[in-house]
Amino acid sequence: MIYVHVPFCHRKCTYCAFFSRPESGKWKVESYVDVLLQEMELRRGEQAHPIRTVYFGGGTPSMLPIGHLARIVEGLRRCFDLSQVEEVTLEANPEDLTPDYLAALASLGLFNRLSIGIQSLDDDVLRWLNRRHTSRQAIDAVERAHEAGFHNISVDFIYGVVSASPMGPISPIGPISLISPIVSMVNHISVYSLTVEAGTALARQVEQGRVALPDEDEVVRQYFALHDLLEREGLHQYEVSNYARPGFESRHNSRYWDRTPYLGLGPGAHSFDGQCRHWNNPDGTVGEELLTPADAYNELLMTSLRTVRGLPLEAVPEGQKERLHRAMQPYVDCGWIERSDRFYRPTPEGLLHADGMAAALFIA
Ligand code: SF4
To answer: How confident is the model over 138-175, as pLDDT tens digits?
Structure first.
């Protein structure tokens, strides 16, 4: 699988800590594409496994003018064997998805899935998050994507936000009920709890006391309200943040969780060859980390306990099984984990605590 990182955004969202910046100075789309094409040429032999998924993430890949996107697609086709590709996703923001853009995207003949960053259908919340689109534009974008022939559509939402204004009252479930109109038009939804990441505008607002985020009980209430709404609408949860209609689970993300090797292209992108992770730093240098057996086991805990499928016992090294059974028992007793012959599966409540449980089970 291949991940292409597109490091541009029109402007920074309040909460975002991803590596992205507006086009300016030496950060020009054209030079980015030139360097990306050189990187593809240099790394063309690296992907030993058949490539089944390609994912353009960012940043905002839909900010790329179609001419540039076409050059990248041509480069991928030239350097890699895409004959077995099943899923090619482009992350997009609603305001970029004009009818012309969508038609040109479809004509490239590669993309078969769109992941649209909607985040909320409450216009006050969208303004507070510093998003560029309105709720109307978001709904229109999904409708237009269908008209252009894209029927495999995912949308992202954020919960655990304040409502109305930065100092306004915390909305209970209000913004969540607003997402109903869009649920029937998509077959995949990712939902993320708003988190305060260091260095973001949100972190500064919180530090200065200009904004108060909902308390944990409210965030949990919103999580379950969303969960119930999506399950009622036929989207089943398959990972803590991801819901899909049957057969529309993200193949790309599922392979990350299975620890399938992948090739990451572009500034900040990570690659994994099955044993070693390496990445391109934004300044052009390269980082590398060889995973020890303990690292690999800890990653297995971290990723599998976030999935509804859970931790497969066959993947647990023999020497760790006894310790694992002992450490899991309290989570089974409190209803966060269900044990079957072959799996430790988190319950919906357990999924909320997946990261904490995994950390408590880590080995050194
Ligand atoms: S559009 Fe996405 S990547 Fe860009 S600043 Fe907003 S959240 Fe971050």
So the answer is: 999 999 999 999 999 999 999 888 654 444 444 544 55
- 2-256 and 292-364, same CATH topology: no
The HSE-up count of residue 263 (CA atoms within 13 Å, CB side) is 23
CA of 341 to the centre of ligand 1 (A): 42
pLDDT in tens, 266-287: 988 899 988 888 888 877 788 8
59 CA from centroid of ligand 1 (Å): 5
DSSP for 278-324, please give it. Answer: EEE-TTS-EEEEEPPHHHHHHHHHHHHTTBSS-EEGGGS-HHHHHHH
Encoding tokens for residue 77? 């086709």
Domain 292-364 has CATH 1.10.10.920: yes
**What are the tokens at 240?**
């803590």
CATH superfamily of 2-256: Aldolase class I (3.20.20.70)
Residue 24 in tokens: 């300016």
CA–CA separation, 305 vs 310, rounded Å?
Answer: 5
Contact present, 81 and 28 (Cβ < 8 Å): no
Q: Is the pTM of this model over 0.90?
A: yes
- Centre of ligand 1 to C-alpha 101, Å, is 20
CA 19 to ligand 1 centroid distance, Å: 9
Element (H, E) at 29: helix 29-42
Which residue has the least CA distance to atom 5 on ligand 1? 12
The response to whether residue 10 sits with its C-beta less than 6 Å from ligand 1 reads no
Give the H/E segment covering residue 327: helix 318-333
Ligand 1 pocket: which of 11, 18, 64, 192 to mutate (most atoms within 8 A of CB): 18
Domain positions in the chain are: 2-256, 292-364
* Shortest-distance Cα residue to atom 3 of ligand 1: 59
